[in-house]
Amino acid sequence: MDAHAKEWLVGSTPKGWRQFRIPLKEFTRMVGNPDTTFQQILNVRLWFSDIPEEERTRILIATFDFVGNEWEETGIAQDERHRNFVKNDSLFTLAVYNTEENADAIEGGPEPYKSPPGVKGVRDRITRAMSKEQSLVMRLFGLKAGQIAEARKQLYQVISLVNYKKLRMFVHGDRSLPLEPPEYDANGVPNSEPSPIRFYLRFGSDDKNYYEYGEDVYAGWNKANNVEIDLDDMASIKDDPSLNIGTADSLVYLKMLSKPQAYYKAVGKPSLNTIRYFTIGIKHRGDETGRNSDPFVGEIWLDELRLSDVRKVTATALRVSTRMKFADVASFNAQWESKDADFHNVSKQFGSGNTEERQSYSGKLYLDKFLPAGLDISIPIDARASFSRSIPKYKTNSDQLTHYQNNTIDRKLRSLFGLRKVTDDIAIMTNKSEVYGIGTTIKKRSKSKFWLLRYTLDGMTFDFDWSKKKSSNWETAFNKSELYKETFSYQIPFGRNNYIQPFKFLKKIPVLNKLSKQKVYYAPSTASFNLNVSDSKSSMLRRSSSKLTRQWNLQSSRSVRASYKIFDNLDFSINRSYDSDGDFVGLTHRKLLENILKKGYFGLDTDIRQTFQGNYKPNIVRWLKPSFSFNSNYSFQLANNNKYRNTSNSSTKRIDLSFNPGEFLKSVYNPNKRRRSSYNRSRGHRRRSVHPPAGKKVKSGKEKETKKSFSFPNPLMWIYHTIASWSNIRTSISRDDRVQNRYLADMPNWQYQFGFTRSPGVPQDTTLDVNLVGPTQSKAISVRTQTSFSIANLARVSLSHNYQKQKSMADYGKSGSGSTSSSYFFLGDDPKANFHGLGTLFAFVPDWNAQISGVEKILFFPKFAKSVSITHGHSSKYTQNSQVKLDGSFLPTSQTFTRAWQPLVGINISTKWGVTGTIRYTGATNFAYSASGGATKSENSSFNMSFSYSKSGGFRIPFGPFNKRKLKNELKFDLAFDASSNRTFQRQFGQKKFEEKQNNSTWKLRPSATYRFSTKVQGSLFYETGVSKNKISGKFSYNEFGITVNIAIRD
């Protein structure tokens, strides 16, 4: 950096700090084949050389950052007419100066930075630190007479300036420029030399449609440099033909301003409503008479480009709706709405810019009311119509107002009901939409008693719908569409008692009597059929074209659903649907309906989907409940104009086992049952009661109990009750298989469609002119086990273990990936070093959660606690991701070990005084190892403590309108403390220890109080203090105090 040190030096301080700004593109050496666009930086190396060995050298580096700018240099052009820009950093660059890094003078360097008059940084209300204030700098190194330099900022989203009146900016001229603008005599001759530098600002939608403002620049933050653009005045120059200095095909409007040498320019048809970019430029006017023609070496500073003077326009919105019902025969609904272009709610800053007018009408006629009641048919006919109109405030691609306003009551009412007329030119720019529709649904109201009607007409539903739409806007002359839709559905009403009991005769036979209640169902549970036919036609004409675009789409879809329960514990279900194309095979709407009714032909089947499911839940013994399920999904599509046959299927096989140790133990030995049987035997041989002689006192039961000897608890019974308290041990084993096949010659076989095989049974179509690729296959296995048990009715422990393995292959094994994850217990600071696969004991240690209750009865807790419980949890996981190698084997690409204490310790407490609290400490550690040998480690921990106390009551106001009215109030105090720590470590290949890269820690304390005066009024105050520490940015502390009042206005 020695040769360019002075060139790259942009700032310094008296204490020896220097700031260098090094252009990334000006590298002096390139090793290998790096990314010269610098889109991804993975490694940075910084070194120093030629350091004297005999002297102790200390070098401090404050920051080392990559910085950029939203403004980008366009380059240098030789003249304004041709505008052929060439980037040249030796002649023109952009930079940023601020009050912290560029405030001091540098010998032979640029001018010390000073903010514009009245402009300063923003002071943080918590830390009271003043932020730096900065300006964009255009640095020029020898701009010749007639040349121009430009920079551009491309906006990611289109912005609109129509809601503001002014566009302002501060401009600072180089110290080499004249101090003040000259005065001009009556003939326009200046009394001193004017500035040779002109600054201009350009903005618009593209390079052929834009606005431009220009002015001469003088030294310093001169008031004459201030940019103040009247947006209305600038936009109006397009309306004055006398200002057009261009041609009919190339419109250029120019207006000189009262400010000397300042001007407005409009090129093409720009609009303040569509701004996509900003351009800043410098022109050297030395080629003009009376101006300095020396090459310009200096800087132009730009600051505070801003919009001001928001337009404030009064706007209204009106909505009226009505509902009418004519007995039980008909109903009618209507709604009218009108919203001005500048109307907006409190959540938005500006209106939509369009006057919105909407009218909607809907009605329903119950035609079945005019038919005999004995038919028991429902025929409601519903009709609807809606009209909407969106009239822009400004003409399309223009800043001229349409002057459409609803500023009188008469106009507002006519606008509300859609009766106000617009001129032809406004009608072309208006978004209009009309929608009409009518439909009906025919079905039986109730179930018929006659069996033939019950199984035919009762399950049928006919639906018909017709709709028509018409719309237009400034781009489209019209867009019309029409839709006819018919729907038929049929559902067979199978009953619930369609079964027989073939083994009922075994009721009195031992052992076999369990089969006597077995039900065998001879009819399906449900069966239904649905058919939809849709015929849509559309036509569109663009205003820029005479070609009419037409589209016609005739589609049908049908589906069949059925479910069958063979036994109470065995059932199957299937759902198969088809999407068919009628217009592709040349059918009309009428002919398609005829083919469906006569031939059962629905068109070309382009999409077929099927789901199949089977469940079996045998009931063998009470303590073991197995469950088996099978699910499959199949799809078939015709792609690319129905030429390619692509298909896929997926199947899931699942086994669930639920083992209850308590029930199993009770089936082997039940002390309660033996005690009851012993008690019953003793009752059968009980002696008669003998009355004591007169005068003798009978001993009470309590006296007898006091004389009983103490018996030590039986440890075997304690073990028995612990095992008996176990919940079910649930184990779930599932396997997922998926396959995708492309370019098949025919429909796959039925085994493939039901998911019984992954081979479609048909070859690929070799007649297709495509590259035939192999199938994409994947399979996944997962095993999950969980259980919970109690210990002495005081502690509850939950255990869980998870294992998953997934593998996918494509194109006959040429590419693939896989992953394995499992619960895995580990300790230490380098789990991979002690990892010996998932076959070790650590891979079978489950995750656990424990909760201990009744702690309030021990230690010192009884003095103040009503209830105390302790929670503890741990989970750990191992994950490995792999990729397939050339030989077909899998190579691990990354390994991850995760351990979490959620929480390590958690305490929930409720005191006798009404105070409730929670204390939790959690921690998590994550190790990530890459295949290259590197590793990262992250540690997270948090400590949370919260306490709450509330007191509620009420009082009465004994006077005025509130006499004898009771008001409920509530006072609540909260105290919360949170502390967290986050640390990140990294270890490169060959290193043995992890090096700390990030260390963040925070804590905050927040006491607060809330007073609820009533259900509608409440207030609160809080104080919050906290500290955050960062290894790079240092320490940051804050203090906050706030008061809030909430008043509910609505009920």
Based on the model shown, name its key terms.
1051 residues, mainly beta, 8% helix, 7-stranded antiparallel sheet
Descriptive notes:
This protein has 1051 residues and is mainly beta. Among the domains are: 70-119 and 130-310; 314-465, no CATH class; 820-1047, no CATH class. Helix 7 crosses helix 10. The radius of gyration is 42 Å and the shape is globular.
How are the SSEs placed, and which strands pair?
Blueprint lengths: L4 H4 E4 L5 E3 L51 E6 L14 E7 L35 E10 L4 E12 L4 E9 L24 E10 L2 E8 L10 E4 H6 L15 E5 L6 E5 L7 E10 L11 E15 L6 E10 L3 E10 L14 E13 L10 E2 L1 E13 L16 H8 L7 H6 L1 E14 L6 H4 L5 E13 L3 E16 L7 E2 L19 E2 L4 E17 L5 E20 L2 E12 L7 H10 L5 E13 L7 E16 L4 E16 L1 H8 L2 H14 L16 H6 L8 H10 L4 E13 L8 H4 L22 E16 L3 E16 L4 E9 L23 E6 L12 E20 L5 E22 L4 E15 L4 E23 L7 E23 L7 E18 L4 E14 L3 E14 L4
Antiparallel strand pairs: 1-2, 3-6, 4-5, 5-14, 6-13, 7-10, 7-14, 8-9, 8-13, 9-12, 11-12, 15-16, 16-17, 17-19, 18-20, 19-20, 20-21, 21-22, 22-25, 23-24, 25-26, 26-27, 27-28, 28-29, 29-30, 30-31, 31-32, 32-33, 33-34, 33-35, 34-36, 35-36, 36-37, 37-38, 38-39, 39-40, 40-41, 41-42, 42-43
